[in-house]
Amino acid sequence: MFQPSPWRADFPAITALQRQRQTYLDSAATTQKPQALLDALSHYYSHGAANVHRAQHLPGALATQAFETSRDKVATWLNAVDSRQIIFTHGATSALNLLAYGLEHGFEAGDEIAVSALEHHANLLPWQQLAQRRNLRLVVLPLDEHGRIDLEHALQLIGPRTRLVALSQLSNVLGTWQPLPALLAHARAQGALSVVDGAQGVVHGRHDVQLLGCDFYVFSSHKLYGPDGVGALYGRTEALARLRHWQFGGEMVQLADYHESSFRPAPLGFEAGTPPIASVIGLGATLDYLASLDPAAVAAHETSLHQHLVRGLADREGVRILGTPQSALASFVIDGVHNADIAHLLTEQGIAVRAGHHCAMPLLKGLGLEGAIRVSLGLYNDSDDLQRFFDALDQGLELLR
Ligand SMILES: Cc1ncc(COP(=O)(O)O)c(C=O)c1O
Fold this sequence. Notes:
- This protein is an alpha/beta fold.
- It has 14 helices and 15 strands.
- It has helices at about 10-20, 35-45, 60-80, 90-100, 125-135, 150-155, 180-190, 210, 235-240, 275-290, 295-315, 340-350, 360-365, 385-400, and strands spanning about 25, 85-90, 110-115, 135-140, 160-170, 195, 215-220, 230-235, 255, 260-265, 320, 330-335, 350, 355, 370-375.
- The strands form 4 sheets. Strands 2-8-7-6-5-3-4 form a 7-stranded mixed β-sheet, with helices on both faces. Strands 11-12-15-14 form a 4-stranded antiparallel β-sheet, covered by helices on one side.
- It is globular, with a radius of gyration of 22 Å.
- The structure holds pyridoxal-5'-phosphate (PLP).
- Pyridoxal-5'-phosphate (PLP) binds next to helix 4.
């Protein structure tokens, strides 16, 4: 039975892609954009660009107001207590690097940082490099057979030497939600700081950072239907106070002299230089658009399409799904067929899916794989998109076998 997306028409690029005979199933990499965002960008650029937080003139005041309103919207989206807990960054990667450098001074040789075995490189390499700089021990929390962090094992590995845990909320390879509430509560009881990589999780459902109980939460706007070049770092007020400034320049300074300076607290103290103003304003407009949708309808649509995807893959002979995907995406390999070959055949048939290691090389290596194909869904996908994918997959398999 055909399952339409009630929001497909809100995303003009989907129609444009269709005209190019492209079926977009790579939303976990980046999403198509709603008209509301295009309108906000066009409005900002066609009504007068201006820098923020410095000019006293009217365009500057309007840009600053729009920029700060976006900060309020991000705070509301995450249910942060205060919009001063939201630092704009250039994305999840830059937020995680900010944390790894900003918290570095608090670590001593022999301290431990815990990450899971499924982290994206963005939430692995900053901590790995910090561990190398400071002579720390990086502890890797193992997974169970479904592709979720093995809770029992992880609770034993997070102990009094653990100073920080950095965990993904929703795996970008396995589509599994991680058991964060228990892990974060345990980390807190051990006196460790917690960092949640919400790059994928933030896109599906609404998440409350207070309920989650994390110290820091990061995400990228471009995966949440917003513009690229911008992301957000949420921090609990006490946790933010532990950050040292890490990038220096305009806007972040309180007083500067030739030989000494003092710096602003969060958020502006961590937003050195001109920020991506249009993108921040566009993110605010995107959040307004997303907030206008019926969350139950979105969840029902996403769940139903995801089930359709997983069932369709499971029904096909020789297809091996990685882990037990719960939301948003599924990755798979095919017995006896190289993933690059199948990816090539899908590409030729206009199916835009991702193949490779998905920026999680250690995870793929642990699974004994060089790569996998990932199909990921967005609000705008409908069951015809999946049908085109399955038809192309069947045709490709026939050719390859
Ligand atoms: C789980 C996860 N974390 C972090 C990132 C990094 O996001 P960005 O490249 O936008 O900084 C990604 C992007 O694929 C991701 O999927």
